[in-house]
Amino acid sequence: MRVGHSYIRGNVYNKTCTFSRDSALPIHKGALFQIQAMYNNISYSAEARFIPQGKIGTSVENFSCVIYNISFMNCAWKAGRNAPEDTQYFLFFQYSKEEDEQECPHYIRDALGRPIACSFQNVTDIKKEVYFLVNGSSNELEIQFYDEYITLYEIEILTPPLNITVNCSEDRAECIVRWKRPQPSHMEGNVDHCFEYQIDIRNKNANANPKESSNECPTVRGTSYTFQNYNVKKKYTLQIRAKGDACLVSQNWGEWSEPIEFGNPDDAVLTTTIVLLLIAFGTIPVALVIFFLCKRYCSLKKMFSPVPQPKNKFHELFQISDKNIQREWMDLPPTKYETEEITTVEELNNF
């Protein structure tokens, strides 16, 4: 069988030929079957061509799928350039001929209502090759189908490495970065040798040299990396991503980890100090302006009313006593005065 530039050959000894799943090829573009036989030392040959039904340009285009977050799969495509506006596409995938095909549970549609994407959940066995088939229907034209075989682990977007730590030494002017590998659902045991990692370390200083702030990203094997030429006066950001280096792991780079900062924290302290000083110096002029405005246009007595003092019980007592004494003095009866006659006796001398 010939499909495009690919060939599948096999020897059979009866009138039926079955191709195994491992050697199957998509046939949405058509296929050419050639048969050669030998009988009584005479060679015979024949061929048959498979031509898909439907109008050319109506099948989906740019079909692709990705697996992310271990068990989620998204497939997307474009409607055929000659597909009518009422075209409806239906996506199926099948693990093997012995298993039932599964249809897309959730479609995403374009402005015309045509399905252009699909989301699957709980995609577990990604070590196998899966057959994808997209059929179509329309009231105007017959829609061509599209099919493709995809090995699922090859389209997986790996999650970021886990438990990233950075330990720096000022004496040695270096930092040791350690992490743990991603956790693909289909891999168990010690498979650290199956991964390759890319390290991105950047100088975070705002006035850093562009050459220093965007270094080349080295690739390493293993789960540790030594960062040389560490400057204790600088602050850095670190990100790591992974891809398969062997085994049944995607050869495409996965997602970057969240940025991790390490290095000298003095910049943050200095920034905080500057902000506090600016606030302090900014508050003093504002307070002075408010004071002079209030002195000019407001009454300080209204703003700062006197605080009431507690009553002095002794003072009240003395006031009450004084009043009582005055009242008693006024109430005394008038004093009677007796008249006393005084007689002056003079001694007369005789001459």
Overall description:
- Helices cover 17% and strands 33% of the residues.
- With 351 residues, the chain is α+β, with helices and mostly antiparallel strands.
- It is elongated, with a radius of gyration of 50 Å.
- 15% of the residues are buried.
Cα gyration radius (Å): 50 Å
State the distance separating the first and last CA atoms. 197 Å
Question: How many separate helices?
Answer: 4
Helix content: 10-25%
Structural class: alpha+beta
Quick one: overall form?
Answer: elongated
Average pLDDT for all residues: 78
SSE order, as H and E? EEEEEEEEEEEEEEEHEEEEHHH
- Order of strands across the main sheet: 5-6-10-9
- Beta content: 25-35%
Count all strands and give the number. Answer: 19
How many strands, what sense, and barrel or not for the largest sheet? Answer: 4 strands, antiparallel
Low-confidence stretches: none
What is this entry, summarized?
This protein is α+β, with helices and mostly antiparallel strands and 351 residues long.
Features:
351 residues; alpha+beta; 4-stranded antiparallel sheet; elongated; transmembrane; transmembrane helix
Strand-helix topology:
Layout: E1 2-3, E2 6-7, E3 31-39, E4 42-50, E5 61-68, E6 72-78, E7 88-94, E8 102-103, E9 106-109, E10 115-120, E11 129-137, E12 146-151, E13 162-169, E14 174-180, E15 195-203, H1 210-213, E16 219-221, E17 224-227, E18 235-244, E19 260-263, H2 266-297, H3 300-303, H4 313-331
Antiparallel strand pairs: 1-2, 3-4, 5-6, 6-10, 7-8, 7-11, 9-10, 11-12, 13-14, 14-17, 15-16, 15-18, 18-19
